[in-house]
């Protein structure tokens, strides 16, 4: 994900903004007035919804985001604009329309279950004056943005004429334009680069009941060809997503637990736009979006996702490459911020010539927790500790071999003679050292919650291996 971390794309988001309002509480009784739950509200929160959730996701990924939309000249509109500005979005392109009601959706949540939702909003098309104002703003942004994202929630901003004009403008400036569609008539999205309906939406729009791969291919192909798209992606919830470009490809889901799918489509749209803006291929971008969606459905309510969370989730999946498990101290600290409710185990050493004693030691260390981080002495550090003839194997080789072990979650090299600075940054739950440290002070023992000593395999050591090799 180097390109995703080193390039900060500029993305223009156009669509229906709204507030997602949550009332959180618990339910312990039924109302005597009617057969309904009585929810004792304990707190409330408000987050950006609709196109605002796309904006929020893009900002959390690290993009520069400009927004085009229409809000009402009301208190909800003021709150929404304030939230966007506080997050760092460019809101100069947002138009206020007198008499329009800014969308706000309120949800009552009791014991992590949504009980009821009530909406306050305007859904009619925006006025011609608002359309003209938005088109003028759009032209101002076209030369400075990498990509354009349309988030249509059917609340009247993306009218037929406005959407067609935006797509035409984008194409005239050779800008990719991604669309999360709404409704049963997708003709206004014709000529877009990419469309991302879910299975139900695609079935309604194409009038093809998607029940198997054959019907899925028919629907996706029809969307792509009839709307002159470069790509169509149909999201399939727990079954992943289907990509229609030059060829058909089905990408399976990577989600482990699903708590709430609210806003998952926004995350897919945002992460696709971000990845494509950073120069990833469509296949790479879809894989990235798939992982982003897997992270966000594990959260409750409209949620955002960060690069660190996606990176951490990628590494939690089977098949993480050895190279991807080698991290700097800064990267490791960032990853751990996205890791919750997991016990962190830390050990360190030179691991110059990896042998069975090392492997068994690391397997035992991993059994003490969920994530095993191995601090690895850099070459100069080993020379100072063991002499100029060491190490036998350079840091890059030692790190890669260690990272290839199933028991090792991450390898973090350090230049100092001791790993104190690294331990201070990581703050592990458990610090593991060899049994020869019995009665000795273990560096970092005042930082970790617990220190455990592991017995080495008798007769197995790098020094003995070197001695035997020299004798021969």
UniProtKB/TrEMBL annotation:
Superkingdom of origin organism: Bacteria
Gene Ontology molecular function, alphabetical: ATP binding; heptose 7-phosphate kinase activity; heptose-1-phosphate adenylyltransferase activity; phosphotransferase activity, alcohol group as acceptor
Pfam entry (one): PfkB
Matches recorded under CDD domains: RfaE_like
Enzyme class: transferase
InterPro entries the record matches: Bifunc_HldE (IPR023030), Cyt_trans-like (IPR004821), PfkB_dom (IPR011611), RfaE_dom_I (IPR011913), RfaE_dom_II (IPR011914), Ribokinase-like (IPR029056), Rossmann-like_a/b/a_fold (IPR014729)
Residues the record lists as binding ATP: 198-201
Positions of the catalytic residues: 266
Region (Cytidylyltransferase): 346-472
Cytidyltransferase-like domain span: 346-459
Keyword Signal carried by entry: no
Catalytic activity field: D-glycero-beta-D-manno-heptose 7-phosphate + ATP = D-glycero-beta-D-manno-heptose 1,7-bisphosphate + ADP + H(+); D-glycero-beta-D-manno-heptose 1-phosphate + ATP + H(+) = ADP-D-glycero-beta-D-manno-heptose + diphosphate
Domain Carbohydrate kinase PfkB positions: 10-304
Region Ribokinase: start-end pairs: 1-320
Entry keywords, A to Z: ATP-binding, Carbohydrate metabolism, Kinase, Multifunctional enzyme, Nucleotide-binding, Nucleotidyltransferase, Transferase
Gene Ontology CC terms, in alphabetical order: cytosol
UniProt-listed Enzyme Commission number(s): 2.7.1.167, 2.7.7.70
Pathway the protein acts in: Nucleotide-sugar biosynthesis; ADP-L-glycero-beta-D-manno-heptose biosynthesis; ADP-L-glycero-beta-D-manno-heptose from D-glycero-beta-D-manno-heptose 7-phosphate: step 1/4; Nucleotide-sugar biosynthesis; ADP-L-glycero-beta-D-manno-heptose biosynthesis; ADP-L-glycero-beta-D-manno-heptose from D-glycero-beta-D-manno-heptose 7-phosphate: step 3/4
SUPFAM superfamilies: Nucleotidylyl transferase, Ribokinase-like
GO BP annotations, alphabetical order: ADP-L-glycero-beta-D-manno-heptose biosynthetic process
Function as written in the Swiss-Prot or TrEMBL entry: Catalyzes the ADP transfer from ATP to D-glycero-beta-D-manno-heptose 1-phosphate, yielding ADP-D-glycero-beta-D-manno-heptose.
Subunit architecture: Homodimer.
Family label: In the N-terminal section; belongs to the carbohydrate kinase PfkB family.
Protein name in the entry: Bifunctional protein HldE
Species this protein is from: Sulfurospirillum diekertiae
């Amino acid at each position: 994900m180097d390109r995703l971390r080193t390039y900060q794309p500029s993305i223009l988001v156009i669509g229906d903004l709204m507030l997602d309002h949550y009332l959180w509480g618990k339910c312990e009784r039924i109302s005597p007035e009617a057969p309904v739950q009585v929810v004792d509200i304990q707190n409330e929160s408000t987050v950006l919804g609709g196109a605002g959730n796309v904006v929020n996701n893009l900002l959390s990924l690290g993009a520069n985001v400009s927004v085009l939309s229409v809000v009402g000249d009301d208190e909800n509109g003021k709150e929404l604009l304030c939230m966007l500005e506080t997050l760092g979005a460019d809101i100069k392109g947002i138009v206020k329309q007198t008499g329009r009601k800014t969308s706000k959706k309120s949800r009552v949540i009791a014991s992590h279950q949504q009980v009821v939702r009530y909406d306050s909003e305007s859904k009619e098309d925006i006025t011609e004056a608002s359309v003209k104002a938005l088109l003028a703003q759009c032209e101002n942004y076209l030369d400075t943005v990498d990509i354009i994202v349309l988030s249509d929630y059917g609340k009247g901003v993306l009218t037929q004429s406005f959407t067609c004009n935006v797509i035409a403008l984008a194409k005239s400036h050779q800008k990719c334009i991604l669309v999360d569609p709404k409704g049963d008539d997708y003709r206004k999205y014709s000529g877009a680069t990419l469309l991302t309906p879910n299975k139900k939406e695609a079935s309604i729009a194409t009038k093809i009941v998607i029940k198997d791969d054959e019907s899925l291919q028919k629907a996706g192909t029809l969307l792509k060809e009839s709307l002159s798209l470069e790509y169509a992606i149909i999201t399939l919830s727990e079954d992943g997503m289907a990509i229609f470009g030059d060829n058909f490809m089905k990408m399976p889901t990577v989600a482990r637990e699903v708590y709430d799918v609210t806003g998952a489509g926004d995350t897919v749209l945002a992460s696709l736009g971000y990845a494509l803006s950073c120069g990833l291929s469509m296949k790479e971008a879809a894989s990235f979006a798939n992982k982003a969606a897997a992270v966000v459905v594990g959260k409750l309510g409209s949620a955002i996702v960060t690069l660190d969370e996606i990176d951490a989730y990628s590494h939690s999946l089977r098949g993480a490459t050895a190279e991807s498990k080698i991290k700097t101290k800064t990267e490791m600290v960032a990853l751990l911020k996205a890791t919750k409710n997991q016990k962190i185990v830390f050990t360190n050493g030179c691991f110059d010539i990896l042998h069975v004693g090392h492997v068994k030691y690391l397997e035992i260390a991993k059994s003490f927790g969920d994530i095993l981080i191995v601090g690895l002495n850099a070459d100069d550090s080993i020379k100072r500790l063991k002499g100029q003839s060491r190490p036998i194997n350079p840091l890059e080789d030692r790190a890669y071999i260690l990272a290839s072990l199933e028991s090792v979650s991450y390898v973090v090299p350090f230049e100092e003679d001791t790993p104190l600075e690294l331990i201070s940054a990581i703050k592990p739950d458990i610090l593991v050292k060899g049994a020869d440290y019995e009665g000795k002070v273990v560096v970092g023992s005042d930082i970790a919650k617990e220190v455990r000593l592991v017995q080495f395999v008798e007769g197995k050591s790098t020094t003995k291996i070197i001695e035997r090799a020299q004798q021969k």
